[in-house]
Write a structure and sequence with these properties.
238 residues, alpha/beta, six-stranded mixed sheet, four-stranded antiparallel sheet, 10 helices, 38% helix, binds adenosine-5'-triphosphate, ABC transporter ATP-binding protein
C-alpha cells in the first residue's frame, strides 16, 4: 500500500500552548487508522492542522505525494481530503439538503452534485426523509450523520472523523462504526479520532496514541489493544 498521507515533525501552537509537538505518522491508501489518547492530547489540533483550519507551526504534510502543508481548507476538499469536525457543527437554520450542498461547494456540475447527494442519501436514508427540514431540528445522531454526510459530499479519498460517536446513544454508536467499515468498502481511507477505544480498535487496521502533544505508541490495532502505553495514555501519563 502506498502512503496517502505523510506527516513529518508536525507542530501546532496556540500562542504559548504547544498542542502538537513534532509528530510523524502516515496513513496508507485503504486503511482505517485510529487516533487515540486522552482529552487535550492533541488529536483534534492535528486533524484541524491537516485540513488547514489551524496553522501548522512547523513540519510538513504530504497528501498524495504533494506538499499541502499550508493549503487552505477550500483547496483540500477538492483535492480529496475532508474533515467531519468534533461536535456536529451543522448549520441549524439551513435545511439538511443545503448543509450537504455546502460540502460540495467546489463542485459546479449539477449532475455531479446530484450524484453526491444520492450517495449520501443512500448511506443515510433518514437524511433523505428529512432533506427539507432545518438541520437544527434533527436529533444528535442525525446531526452527526449530517456532519459526516457533508464531509462526504466532495467525494474524499481521505476522510478525517473527529469523535464521530461523541454523545451518541450506544445503539447509534454501533451504526457509526458500521458506517466507517462501509465507507472503507467504497474506497475511502479513514482516520478516526475516538474516545471509544475498544470499538475504534475493532474496526481500525492501525492506530497512534497521543499524549501531551506527542505520539507515544503506534502499531496494529490488535497490538495496541493489549498495550500498557495506551492504557497509561488515558490516565494522563506518557
Ligand atoms: P479533545 O478530545 O479534548 O478535543 P484532543 O486530543 O483533540 O482533545 P486538542 O483539542 O487538540 O486535543 O488540544 C490540545 C491542546 O491544545 C490542549 O491543551 C487544548 O487545551 C489546547 N487547545 C486546543 N484548541 C485550542 C485553541 N483554539 N486555543 C488555545 N488552546 C487550544
Amino acid at each position: 500500500m502506498t502512503s496517502l498521507l505523510s506527516v513529518q515533525s508536525l507542530a501546532v501552537r496556540y500562542g504559548p500552548i504547544e498542542a502538537v509537538r513534532g509528530i510523524d505518522f502516515e496513513i496508507k491508501e485503504g486503511e482505517i487508522v485510529a487516533l487515540l489518547g486522552a482529552n487535550g492530547a492533541g488529536k483534534s489540533s492535528t486533524l484541524n492542522a491537516l485540513v488547514g483550519l489551524v496553522p501548522v507551526a512547523s513540519g510538513t504534510v504530504h497528501f498524495k505525494g504533494e506538499d499541502i502543508t499550508d493549503w487552505a481548507p477550500e483547496l483540500l476538499a477538492p483535492a480529496g481530503m475532508t474533515l467531519s469536525p468534533e461536535g456536529r457543527r451543522v448549520f441549524g437554520t439551513l435545511s439538511v439538503a443545503e448543509n450537504l450542498r455546502m460540502g460540495a461547494f467546489a463542485i459546479t456540475d449539477k449532475a455531479a452534485v446530484k450524484a453526491a447527494w444520492d450517495r449520501v442519501y443512500d448511506l443515510f436514508p433518514i437524511l433523505h426523509e428529512r432533506r427539507d427540514q432545518f438541520a437544527g431540528t434533527l436529533s444528535g445522531g442525525q446531526q452527526q450523520m449530517l456532519a459526516v454526510g457533508r464531509a462526504l459530499m466532495s467525494n474524499p479519498k481521505l476522510l478525517l472523523l473527529d469523535e464521530p460517536s461523541l454523545g451518541l446513544a450506544p445503539k447509534i454508536i454501533g451504526q457509526v462504526f458500521e458506517l466507517i467499515e462501509r465507507l472503507r468498502g467504497q474506497g475511502v481511507t479513514l482516520a478516526v479520532v475516538e474516545q471509544n477505544v475498544a470499538m475504534a480498535l475493532e474496526v481500525a487496521d492501525r492506530g497512534y496514541v497521543f499524549a501531551n502533544g506527542r505520539l507515544v505508541a503506534a502499531g496494529s490495532a490488535a497490538d495496541l489493544a493489549q498495550s500498557d502505553t495506551l492504557k497509561s495514555a488515558y490516565l494522563g501519563g506518557e
